[in-house]
Amino acid sequence: MSSKTKNNIVSTIEPPVELDVAAIRADFPILDQKINGHTLVYLDSAASSQKPREVINALLEHYRHNHSNIHRGLHTLAERSTEGYEKTRSHVAQFIGGVPTEEVIFTSGATESLNLLAYAWGDLNVHEGDEIVITEMEHHANIVPWFQLAQRRKAILKTIPITVCGHLDLSNLDTIITPRTKIVALCHMSNVLGTINPVAEIAEAAHKKGAIVVVDAAQSAPHTTIDVRALGADFVAFSSHKMLGPTGVGVLWGRSELLEEMPPFNTGGEMIREVRFDKITWNELPHKFEAGTPNIAGVIAFDAALSYLDKLGMYNIHHHEMEITRYAFERLSELDGLEIQGPQVVEDRGGTISFTDPVIHPHDISTFLDSHGIAIRAGHHCAQPLMRVMGKVATARASCYVYNDKSEIDALVDCLKDMRKYFGV
Ligand code: C6P
Questions:
Q1: Distance 278 CA to ligand 1 centre (A)
Q2: Judging by DSSP bridges, how do beta strands 10-12 and 374-375 pair with one another?
Q3: pLDDT along the chain (425 residues), means of 10
Q4: Atom of ligand 1 nearest to the CA of 109
Q5: Is 382 considered catalytic here?
Q6: Every domain of the chain and the residues it spans
Q7: Where are the alpha helices (DSSP H) in 375-405?
Q8: Secondary-structure class of domain 56-310 per CATH
Q9: Domain 3-51+313-422 class, CATH top level
């Protein structure tokens, strides 16, 4: 039995199963080490997650026993590699809601997926005076490709503003999305504020005006159940490395009607049906968009990451992170003046917590925490326009995942208290 929350995160009626964090941690060799003399507390999964033994072994296994190029050779190793690669494609298709496999395109990451779209769909469909709508809370990967597209096509880039609470302000959506709007591109979950956006509601408004909807799910796919159709999306982009998989692997999902009419982005081997000096025809989906030799080992090991997430259950993962986030809010409130950005209601957000201290710079916070073995990220998080809207130059950001528990939030908060003593505040 399943139902959907207002943010379109599929939730089950059954109570969540609590994650066995001790057992999970034992699967992640990297966590079993000391950093600067302290047990590693890894709270930077929004930047990149760590990898379980299953994923590391899958990479080794591929290179030790199975490696060859794919879709080309007729020998045993070529067949094994092709089979492994295509198995991951089927797994991704299931993982995002049971879509046709040919709608799943492997890229090098969410960034490449979004660039592919901006060139292949954008250059074909966006014309002078058309509008591209993004939001104020986007990562640069979901701003720069659209900015560049707008420049190339003499189109207008518009933004949906955010409220002081870190939600999208949808009060003027009707005037922001107009019949001239061709693309509405937004993140499902903000990498700074943690906000989970009501994508389906925005998609409905966009579709009414004839625009397509591009969802940057880089921060949500690792943490919540993703059903691309329930989101109302036309295209969805995400990265393997944020969801226990290898770096250099990303996904672009798109509705096949749209993918069919798009020209290729990268060109070369594999993406063609026939090449002559006077005429070239394209390969069928998804190969049309996968030119050259891809990250074969990475894609194959991504399957192991997805299996690991399946085993834990995305609903359970989401619940686990909500519990940690709730606890983090409680404990961080012990620090006077510490400001947490984004929604203060845990149900409206993910487990990515950006904060600022009234006196100590985020870079100093991160350096101090690192000297005590705690990894967080500090800076603008590749979201400079959002920082400007927030009136900040940087934030400190702690982000949790399946291997974190409340004791690590304790370590974080205790260390922040020590830091204030150290800095004399
Ligand atoms: N955000 C962070 O620390 P790539 O680099 O292609 O895997 O993902 C890009 C990207 C796109 N959208 C969102 C919402 C993201 O958060 C990211 C990556 C990391 O926040 C690294 S900058």
A1: 40
A2: unpaired
A3: 50 81 98 98 98 98 98 94 98 98 98 98 98 98 98 98 98 98 98 98 98 99 98 99 98 98 96 97 97 98 99 97 98 98 96 98 98 98 98 98 98 98 95
A4: 6
A5: yes
A6: 3-51+313-422, 56-310
A7: 384-390
A8: alpha beta
A9: alpha beta
